[in-house]
Amino acid sequence: MDHFLYKDGHLHAEDVPLSRIAAEVGTPVYVYSAATLKRHFGLFRQALDWTDHLVCFAVKSNSNLAVLKLMGDLGAGMDVVSGGEYARAKAAGVPGERIVFSGVGKTAPEMRMAIEGGIRQFNIESEPEMRALSALAAGMGASVPVAIRVNPDVDAKTHEKIATGKSENKFGIPISRAIEVYAEAASLPGLQVVGIDVHIGSQLTDLKPFRAAYVKVADLTRALRAEGHQITRLDLGGGLGIPYRRDNNSPPLPIEYGEVIREAVGDLGCEIEIEPGRNIVGNAGVLLSQVIYVKKGEDRDFLIVDAAMNDLLRPAMYGAHHDIVPVVEPDLGAGVHPYDVVGPICESGDTFQKAAELPEIAAGGLIAFRSAGAYGAVMASEYNSRPLVPEVLVQGDHFAVIRPRPTYEEMLGRDSIPEWL
Ligand code: LLP
């Protein structure tokens, strides 16, 4: 459930009409609902309340400082994958003890930054990374907590670009070699082995792959303990999917996911970490856009809107579907008209949806792309020199611009022309 509902015939974010945000901030613009964020975070907490746990928000899904601050104030930890994300988590007031650092290519400066600023744990993805972190930490006189990410060779049954748990993927070390790698980790200076990490992919709509991966992690925990390792923490990754189509079966709920975790690893006495991103923020955001032209084609009509693939890349990149809804509620029984909804960018890939069933809509009309809070603004660019899309956060009956739209001057001001030109 989210807080984007029609009230008095107009789509609202909580108690704020989206048309008001469009009038005051302009379009395209991302709009997030604080109440939805809080609700979704609470559901994960509740799902794990049977054990000691930390819900680490996957910062890559939405890294706006206001969103991170809201999550951090609720007690969330953060899962970061770059120095930039680490800096954002810290700037949002999240203490280092609640930040885990994931990612296959952490550089020495990034590792140093996190050691100096404080870190809950590094999730190590390869032996070269493990040795580099050991040397760096030992050189700094530090001993850093680490979990090693294992690749369980489980098919997550999701889009190939966001599956990460098969042996063909670049992530983690093969689970078959874990005993050997943990033995080396335990012998290295500067590292304190505390746990196991796993993440098999994103937008999973079935619990079976999670269960398969977590059972393998439980077996590995026992095997490592038998070798004398102190495994006290399991980081079980993110990946629980969301309903992108309102008329479809919904993916499993956080509470059901928590039950799978309890069944698979609940008897081990480990502290549990999870790293959800999409499930917390995906349906807490919409991309609001205005129709520029309605263009009659030979065999179809196009809605040319002011949002484009640079603002919301997912349809072009993954063939992803986002429900498109009109901001003015259609009359009951009003007919629908198929439109190809496209952006202004000079590529045919800049198509959000073909034959979207919408009520008749005229130039100037407002539409909202639903489920756009995760991997929306964070993946936006200024392609075609379209200023970076702004973001707004709504809470109750008020809203704030949490990232303004840059002016052309600001956009151009980031470039410089060398004096020898
Ligand atoms: N932890 C790790 C190590 C990850 O790699 C990811 C996502 C997450 C947690 C969070 O997964 P979530 O709960 O959000 O599914 N841009 C793509 C999604 C890429 C996900 C990458 N890793 C998209 O728009 O669908």
**Structure summary, number of beta strands:** 21
Shape: globular
Q: How much β-strand is present in the residues?
A: 15-25%
Helix run count: 12
Bound molecules: ligand LLP
Main structural class? alpha/beta
Through-space gap between termini: 56 Å
Global Rg: 23 Å
Mean pLDDT: 96
Q: What is the CATH C-level name of the largest domain? A: Alpha Beta
**CATH-level-4 superfamily name of the largest domain:** Alanine racemase
* CATH-defined architecture of the largest domain: Alpha-Beta Barrel
Q: What's the CATH topology name of the largest domain? A: TIM Barrel
Care to describe what's here?
This protein is α/β, with parallel strands linked by helices and 421 residues long. It folds into two domains: 4-31 and 282-412, Lyase, Ornithine Decarboxylase, Chain A, domain 1 (Beta Barrel); 103-274, TIM Barrel. It is 28% helix and 25% strand. The chain contains twelve helices and 21 strands. It has helices at 18-25, 34-47, 65-73, 83-91, 108-117, 127-139, 178-187, 208-226, 254-265, 278-281, 314-318, 408-413; strands spanning 4-7, 10-13, 16-17, 29-33, 53-58, 77-80, 99-101, 121-124, 144-151, 173-174, 191-197, 233-235, 271-274, 285-296, 301-305, 324-326, 337-342, 351-358, 366-369, 391-395, 398-403. The strands form three sheets. Strands 4, 14, 15, 16, 17, 18, 19, 20 and 21 form a nine-stranded mixed sheet that branches. The chain has an eight-stranded parallel beta barrel with strand order 5-6-7-8-9-11-12-13, surrounded by five helices. A hairpin with a 4-residue loop joins strand 14 (285-296) and strand 15. Helix 2 packs parallel to helix 9, helix 5 (108-117) packs across helix 6 and helix 8 (208-226) packs parallel to helix 9 (254-265). The mean pLDDT is 96. Residues 58, 60-61, 79, 102, 162, 199, 202-203, 237-239, 275-279, 314, 318, 374-375 line the site of ligand LLP.
